[in-house]
């Protein structure tokens, strides 16, 4: 796609709306101001109302998506920082990650079948519980669409933020690790941000679980993809 | 003040370039050997190995990595906007989709939390027992 002034404007607009939403959320910590919810909504509305065709919008904006590759590498730093927790509770973390990934793929697959969703949608849903850089790579192997998966990941994140604390109160959880792991495994970055508000240990465990679940999802996706 | 801000910005840029370079290298490698594991995850593993072994101090890439992780949401807004193309899909399957994601998230949350709670208690008890056994042993000696 040839780059056009409209494409450049779209890129600048995307960055401006994103930082605008971030600024707003810093001042008002309400879920409907969360950038993960508000920024795509505002931009989607603009693109739709202005009638900007998606290929034009994406001509320059795709450079932002390119940054997801390097961001995956950046996850090495938080894992390294939290190596003490890995050494102390290797089994808890490993089993938490396995449970999260198996439940994530399994629940998406079975519920999609139950509601009779089309195959492309089902395959795009499988990796929705992990962080976007990992989810879009895994969805390639599952035969899903990167765009649909990105959206499902976002909706999952918002959902996890919204219901997380209620789930936490309803379950008889005794350990901080369980409270952290459920946010990281079920709703990746958005959930991890919420876990950080609840407590330091919850935040660290959520972040580790999220990263390790992302890696696990990418590693098993070629095996599972071949079988699908 | 202004110079220190410029220096800090330059450092961030240099660290970002280093991470991009690692990404290019591992992505090229993954393509060259037809690796089923994508280059970005190989890069993650390689950097983690360098950090753990002490060959690369974490401060070499910390600022760059933390910036990328903090702004990650910006990088996946564009594919979300692509859904304006899928208008008909959401008209037809919008509600079931929300149900699948909502129920699915609930299942992953509750299931993971309960499993981790049980395993953690077991692992915690085992560690405490191992510690007290070591202490007993030390007492005997």
Topology, pairings included?
The complex is a heterodimer of chains A (228) and B (141).
Chain A: H1 5-27, H2 35-50, H3 54-66, H4 68-74, H5 76-81, H6 83-88, H7 90-114, H8 119-125, H9 132-142, H10 146-170, H11 176-198, H12 200-227
Helix pairs in contact in A: 1-2, 1-3, 7-8, 7-11, 7-12, 9-10, 9-12, 10-11, 11-12
Chain B: H1 2-32, H2 39-53, H3 62-70, H4 72-75, H5 77-81, H6 87-140
Helix pairs in contact in B: 1-2, 1-3
Largest interface: A-B, 99 and 73 residues
Could you spell the SSE succession of chain B in H and E letters?
Answer: HHHHHH
Report the β-strand fraction of chain A as a percent range: under 5%
Portion of residues in helices of chain B?
A: over 70%
Helicity range of chain A: over 70%
* Mean pLDDT level of chain B: 89
Task: Choose one word for the global shape of chain A.
Answer: globular
Distance between the termini of chain B: 61 Å
Count of DSSP H/I helices of chain B: 6
Please identify the structural class of chain A as seen in this structure. mainly alpha
Largest sheet of chain A: none
Percentage beta strand of chain B: under 5%
Strand element count of chain B: 0
Question: Could you tell me the radius of gyration of chain B in angstroms?
Answer: 24 Å
Cα radius of gyration of chain A in angstroms: 18 Å
Shape of chain B: extended
- Note the quaternary state here: heterodimer
Q: Tell me the span between the first and last alpha carbons of chain A.
A: 33 Å
């Amino acid at each position: 796609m040839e780059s056009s002034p409209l494409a450049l404007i779209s890129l600048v607009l995307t960055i401006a709306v994103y930082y605008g939403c971030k600024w707003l959320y810093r001042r008002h910590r309400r879920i409907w101001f969360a950038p993960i919810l508000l920024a795509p909504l505002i931009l989607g509305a603009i693109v739709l109302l202005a009638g900007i065709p998606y290929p034009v919008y994406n001509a320059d904006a795709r450079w932002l998506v390119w940054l997801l590759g390097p961001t995956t590498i950046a996850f090495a730093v938080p894992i390294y920082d939290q190596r003490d927790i890995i050494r102390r509770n290797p089994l808890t973390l490993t089993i938490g990650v396995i449970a999260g990934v198996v439940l994530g793929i399994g629940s998406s697959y079975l519920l999609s079948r139950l509601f009779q969703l089309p195959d492309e949608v089902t395959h795009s849903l499988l990796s929705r519980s992990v962080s976007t850089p990992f989810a879009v790579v895994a969805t390639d192997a599952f035969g899903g669409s990167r765009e649909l998966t990105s959206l499902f990941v976002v909706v999952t994140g918002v959902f996890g933020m919204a219901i997380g604390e209620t789930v936490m109160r309803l379950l008889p959880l005794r350990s901080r690790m369980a409270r952290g792991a459920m946010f990281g495994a079920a709703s990746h970055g958005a959930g991890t941000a919420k876990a950080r508000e609840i407590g330091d240990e919850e935040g660290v465990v959520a972040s580790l679980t999220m990263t390790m679940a992302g890696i696990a999802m990418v590693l098993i996706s070629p095996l599972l993809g071949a079988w699908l | 003040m202004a110079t220190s801000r410029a220096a800090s910005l330059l450092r961030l840029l240099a660290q970002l370039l280093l991470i991009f370079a690692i990404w290019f290298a591992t992505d090229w490698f993954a393509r060259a050997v037809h690796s089923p594991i994508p280059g970005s995850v190989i890069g993650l593993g390689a950097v983690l190995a360098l950090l753990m072994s002490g060959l690369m101090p974490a401060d070499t890439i910390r600022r760059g990595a933390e910036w990328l992780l903090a702004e990650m949401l910006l990088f996946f807004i564009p594919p979300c906007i692509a859904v304006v193309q899928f208008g008909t899909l959401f008209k037809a399957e919008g509600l079931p989709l929300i149900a699948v994601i909502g129920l699915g998230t609930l299942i992953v949350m509750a299931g993971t939390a309960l499993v981790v709670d049980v395993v953690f208690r077991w692992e915690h008890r085992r560690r405490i027992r191992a510690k007290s056994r070591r202490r007993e042993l030390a007492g005997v000696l």
